[in-house]
Amino acid sequence: MQENDYFCIQKQYILRRDSIYIHLLGFFLLCLMIGCGQKKQEPVVTPWGEITDTIPTNDDFDLEDIQRNGELIALTLTGPETYYDYRGRHLGAQYLLAQRFADKLGVSLRMEVCRDTAEMRQRLVDGEADLIIFPPSDSTHHSPLTTHHSPVPNWIIGDDKDDLLRELKKWYRPTMLAEVKKQEDYLLSSRSVRRRVFSPMLNRAGGVISHYDAYFQRYATQIRWDWRLLAAQCYQESTFDPQARSWAGACGLMQIMPGTADHLGLSRSNIFNPEQNIAAAVKYIGELERSFSDVRVPSERTKFVLAAYNGGGYHIRDAMALARKHGRNPQMWRDVEPFVLGLSRAEFYNDPVVRNGYMRGSETVEYVRRIHERWNGYRGIKTTHQVSGPSGIPQKAKRERKKKYQLAPEAN
Fold first, then answer.
1. Measuring CA to CA, which residue among 336, 339, 389, 379 is closest to residue 359?
2. Phi first, then psi: what are they for 87, rounded to 5°?
3. How far apart, in Å, are the Cα atoms of 235 and each of 120, 121, 180, 297, 408?
4. Which helix (H) or strand (E) holds 183?
5. H or E element: which one contains 146?
6. Partners of 208 in the beta sheet?
7. Where are the alpha helices (DSSP H) in 70-106?
8. 77 vs 132, 223, 293, CA distance in Å?
9. How far apart are CA 330 and CA 397, in angstroms?
10. pLDDT in single tens digits along all 412 residues of the chain
11. Which helix (H) or strand (E) holds 196?
């Protein structure tokens, strides 16, 4: 036998042997697939051809699977009663209630915001979520979608989740919604911020504002701010209390969130250190200054930066987009301010140009106003605030703005 013939025979033998092994392996996988129960079968392409594989799908993804996966998925629409972002934290009575239920199940909660109710329905039918939460004012959820009747108003559970529904019925009490609303009201009130109230000015005649003036003077130069403006912002954040802490976790003189501190390179062990807290805040303000560099007038940019510091730059960008859409100047705060207020109304936060949904705009507008008034006071300038907005501003937003500007004088 020639040497080449020998190698050919060996090669054929190896190929035949490998083919047998592959077919045996395929047969074994097929047997496992049949024995896995009534799971959904899907085609899988393998080196030896196409077979069907049994994989768990959302068609029967019930309570045990949710707990094993460690996540409860809920779909909703943005709004003041459902789900919204507030200074980096999530709020909304329905969100807080869903978070309590997830805690009861021992899983995390993932809230996903949809464009409209039709998207929520379809995604629930497709098994992409475990439940959907409609806004209380939305009547469209009464249309037929599922055979399951949730005990929680405005909640609909996927119709393949019998165990999840039973668990919800055992857990839910009608008084829970009032409880979470009371919790939210507390979190949004000044009572939730632990701080001592100091005098807004230590020595008016001597021009001494606080014990931290030297730090304000040193670091304000980095962002080309008047140091008294930085001091006014600090008073608004913490009333000069270096140990101030909010319910959301904001810490220190400038109320810096721990996550923001990590981003800025401020160690959490030093987050209450007055100088380091102020230095980190100035660094963050510098980042906001750069992010709003398209606002060319420095005095105007400062207002946008303060608003972003309080309410989030993404919400302020939404208000700018609304101002532009309604023919106003998106680089002038007086033109954007009414739309910051407007983001608390469905007609605005559901507008297609708005990307980040509902916002408690009145708080941010007041934040900017109060800081500027205090800054003017530190400089000995009498404040005159224009109440009525420019023509073309939505009338409801203008009325809300006027009401806010008629608040009683701030207690010092």
1. 339
2. 50, 45
3. 43, 47, 30, 25, 18
4. helix 176-187
5. none
6. 203
7. 93-105
8. 9, 38, 32
9. 16
10. 555 555 555 555 555 665 666 656 665 555 555 555 444 445 555 555 555 544 444 457 889 999 988 999 999 999 999 998 887 778 899 999 999 999 999 999 999 999 899 999 999 999 999 999 999 866 454 444 444 568 999 999 988 899 999 999 999 999 998 999 888 887 777 665 666 666 677 787 788 999 999 999 999 999 999 999 999 999 999 999 999 998 878 999 999 999 999 999 999 999 999 999 999 999 999 999 999 999 999 999 999 999 999 999 999 999 999 999 999 999 999 999 999 999 999 999 999 999 999 999 999 999 999 999 999 999 988 765 553 333 444 444 444 444 443 333 333 3
11. none
Is 331 strand, coil or helix? Answer: coil
Residue that is written with structure tokens 């079968």 in the block: 41
**Residue carrying the six token digits 């039973």:** 166
The amino acid that residue 132 corresponds to is: I
* Residues making up the chain, counted from first to last: 412
pTM of the entire predicted model: 0.69
Which of 229, 233, 258, 232 has its CA nearest to residue 245? 258
